[in-house]
Amino acid sequence: MSLLIQPRHAFEVKSVATDDDHEQRRQIVSGRHMVDVSQPQFTWRAIIVGLLFGTILCFSNLWFGLQSGWISMMSLQSSLVGFAVFKALEHVLDVPFGPAENVVLQSTAVATATMPLAGGFVGILPALKLLEESESNGARTVLNFGQLCAWGLALTFFGVFFAIPLRRQTIIKEKLRFPSGTATAQMISVLHKRPDPTLVDEQLQAETTATALNGVTRDHGTFVRRRGIATAADNASDNSQEDTDDEVQTDNISVDDVKWVTKLLILFVSFTMSGVYALLAHFFPIIAALPVFGRRASTIWAWNLMPSLSYAGQGIIMGLPTCIWMLVGSVVGWGILSPLAKNEGWAPGPVTDWKTGSRGWILWISLAVMIAESIVSLGLVGTKELLLALGRLRVFYGKRKTSGSLLSQPPEDVTTPNTLGQSVDGDTNVPKTVRLVAEEDLDEVDPRFLVPAWVTWGGLFASTLLCMGIVKALFDIPMYDTLIAVVLALPLAVLGVRALGETDLNPVSGIGKVSQVVFAGIMPGNLVGNLVAGGIAEAGAQQAGDLMQDLKTGHLLNASPRAQFVAQMIGSVFSVFVTAGAYLLYNKVYPIPGPQFPVPTAQVWLDMARLVNGHPLPPHVWPFIVAFSILFALLPAIAVIVKNSGKEYVAFGPWTVRTSTLLRWWPSGIAFAIGIYNTPNFTLMRVIGALSTAVVTEVVVSRHKHSGIRSDVLRDHDESILRRKIAMLAIILASGFVLGEGTFSFFILLSQAF
């Protein structure tokens, strides 16, 4: 299991509409919104910068993934850094860097950055190395560079191809939020001084219908408003202001935005500070484990403080609620259960030993929590999907009974009320018989910018064959078993994508564990096959989820889905070779697993494979597994009930809590489990980072509230803008922290390897 973090999005932005006819022109052709062809969609400059920044992110993700299982998409950070690069070069660019290019850039960077997780480099591959000779049954468990690249290519493609047909259902029809993708779109809109793309104009369908009724294609200065894309009449400002004015206007209230030199300075300073810490920790390892809780707690119970700015940055990105539940898990696991197991003699070895110590004992509780919450969450999503499908079937057959076959109804001509015929200008002198366009078609781009169906299904077929052949060659697993693994991975990927779209959490760990359970029956006793099957399921869900987040960003910004698909493919293929080389370097310089890189997720994968294949549990851990499993199976179900209650407030005796606040702080089983399987030093700095940001935000906002004599309305509005501004600066600060240590550590690795 690896943790894929999506940032908590306090960063909800509203941006300024500027007058840029060539970049915001939208036409309606046959009821479809066209991608704006006047601005570049796919450019090699965006791809190259995305690959370069994605490579840095890949190194960082591999470093932190091997240490603590932490992987981040970094889509917000990619859009920020990419924009900063082209902002610095804008005076030498013939064509300005536009939002569609930024979408392609961040899609490339994300695909490159997440290969350590999607390819199993921080979980499956180290777990294979940990297998004892008697458990491997003679199968290959250590791969060379060529074999690692082949393994990565086997897992890279089928999830990407499978995500394409999911786009129409989840993004176009159901309009799932995909919070990270939405926040990235908002970030890009701010950077490029565009309107907030999430502000849907309610007049879109009326304007579209009126245009179709009048048989007119609006052009030359009149644009169709789509999700806040302003009309030409709304954008009356001078084009030249975009290059010189750093002012953001929100709801007619103007505030000075943070200058770009300040943003870049924050990024540079935080990057440098974190890099300096990496150098100091390398030459003086003692500072990486400060015994702030006493010598006994440090040496016996593994309670240390690692003052790593990168982990503080991770905490800022994760958000305070997630970090708090990690801390709760750390206290329960390492402060209560670990001493209990040690003192009772259930885990007599050294505390940090995976086999005989309490670390290995409490890992089973962590695994139980992850499985329980993931399975229940996936079950809830699956049940919802089933009910929706049954509802659609009832409607379909109900219509057939009342009006005959739907296929017999002429789609071209439908009688409509007079009100539908009224144009934007109020002209009611239009025909009553018109061609209506399905609502989802009104929100779809022109087919020229979609991935062709033959590419989607042909690619899915070819990538499945590729996966079957490579897995057979590497691990001698029968091709039909690999086919079953891929087929099983696809519906699980659907559930993962839906969970991601609704909650911003892709339960890839639970998806992998479900596959492991199934394959314990298909290939009993084959631990290598069990791990590979879990890796295939995780890769499919991970790749599909990444692309769906990016497609949501592109959809909100009217970018070309085909360009994003190509960017995802380029980034993924490039990252296979980069990640394979970096992984071999880490194994050459450091023992993996080892003190520097304990690879906790590999232990989780391996323990699950052993459990479902009949290996016994440690003594006396079973009652704790049952208790925590029941608790964290009930919590997501209760959260769904609370969410669907429709109540704005929830009463707890004499206290009432806003429902949204309660759900924001609702216990997270995954975070709780991570707090258990990671040693406390990783968790503590994450909490410090998140808590520090929250405190600074509240202090600044509180001082702002009590300053000046502005009205309450203006003050509340300014507070909202101020919180968004602080959130943006916090993301930049956290990005520098994470990238600094990851980048410097990789250069330290290179210096030791050569």
Explain the overall architecture.
The chain is mainly α and 754 residues long. Helix 15 packs across helix 28 (680-705) and helix 21 packs antiparallel against helix 22 (527-556). The protein contains 29 helices and 10 strands.
How many β-strand stretches?
10
Q: What is the count of helical runs?
A: 29
Q: Mean pLDDT, nearest integer?
A: 77
Tell me roughly what share of residues is in helical segments: 55-70%
Task: Tell me the distance between the termini.
Answer: 32 Å
**What structural class should be given to the helix and strand makeup?**
mainly alpha
- Principal-axis shape equals globular
In what order do the strands lie side by side in the largest sheet?
1-4
Radius of gyration: 27 Å
Low-confidence stretches: 7-32, 200-256, 405-441
What's the short version?
By secondary structure, the protein is mainly alpha-helical.
List keywords for this structure.
4% strand, mainly alpha, two-stranded parallel sheet, 754 residues, single chain, 64% helix, two-stranded antiparallel sheet, 29 helices
Write the layout of secondary structure elements.
Blueprint: E1 3-5, H1 21-24, E2 28-29, E3 32-33, H2 44-68, E4 70-72, H3 75-88, H4 99-113, H5 115-118, H6 124-130, H7 133-136, H8 145-156, H9 158-173, H10 179-191, H11 204-214, H12 241-244, E5 247-250, E6 253-256, H13 260-283, H14 295-299, H15 309-318, H16 320-343, H17 358-403, E7 414-415, E8 433-434, H18 439-442, H19 453-475, H20 479-503, H21 508-522, H22 527-556, H23 561-589, H24 600-612, H25 622-644, E9 649-652, E10 655-658, H26 659-664, H27 669-677, H28 680-705, H29 712-753
Helix pairs in contact: 2-3, 2-4, 2-23, 2-29, 3-4, 3-10, 4-22, 4-23, 6-24, 8-19, 8-23, 9-19, 9-20, 9-22, 10-22, 13-29, 15-28, 15-29, 16-17, 16-27, 16-28, 17-20, 17-21, 17-25, 17-27, 19-20, 20-21, 20-22, 21-22, 21-24, 22-23, 22-24, 23-29, 28-29
